[in-house]
# Entry
Amino acid sequence: MNFERRKDPFGVLGIGKRQLIKDWLDEMGVERYTINADYTIHVDSHVDLEHKGLTELPDYIKFNIITSYFDCSHNKLTSLRGCPNRVGGWFVCSLNLLTSLEHYPKYVRNTFWCQSNKVKFTKEDVIKLCDVRSTNIYV
# Structure
């Protein structure tokens, strides 16, 4: 018999970190995703977390690359921990309770929206650490 050794034996049982990530992504309606070996998440589409009542992303969620847009607006987020490193479209974190832009993307190909948070950020705050390829930065 040929027994194949699996990298994630708990996945077969429907338990473990990978399953926890999968369940949360499915609950949030995220599609076309891949959970990488380091448990970061690649989405070959968009992520729309708008109006989900989120105060934070779970500590086991870390988006890496989103090929389209990422929207986490209209929540009660106090941190951007878990947000993607790279966004192929636009990034929206407006209408939250953010006091810092720590953990925001390092690269955004299109527009960056970050209005109406607990702290009023500036364009300089955004471009200090994020390569926004568009001139459209709304703070």
Residues 1-5 have pLDDT under 50 and may be disordered. The chain has three helices and eleven strands.
